[in-house]
């Protein structure tokens, strides 16, 4: 008899896990679902650990979460991040400045810093440009 580390899966669970493994939005979910499916197929924790290149303890945690709450507990919960330096109003002003100073990223940065009173890096400016749909590669970086 094959030793399993998770309880036998129902057809519905197998279908849900297969879908999560193949089409899950995040890589972490796809890997966790894959681990559960591999366990169902009879792979040991050590083998799964080698296949997925994660520690044994991590695999065990995934199994415990699966058994406690099913697929929902394998999905990462939203986490807070840093508050953006440039808010929506700043990005709108940036968009207007781009029309006045196309291809001049340093001028844009200086003008926006002067108007907003905020200090930020050129990388932050590039991210803001990307967010408003303007490729920063169009700007002269010299």
TrEMBL record:
This is Transposase. InterPro entries: Homeodomain-like_sf. The lineage of its organism: Bacteria, Pseudomonadati, Pseudomonadota, Gammaproteobacteria, Oceanospirillales. It holds the Pfam family HTH_32.
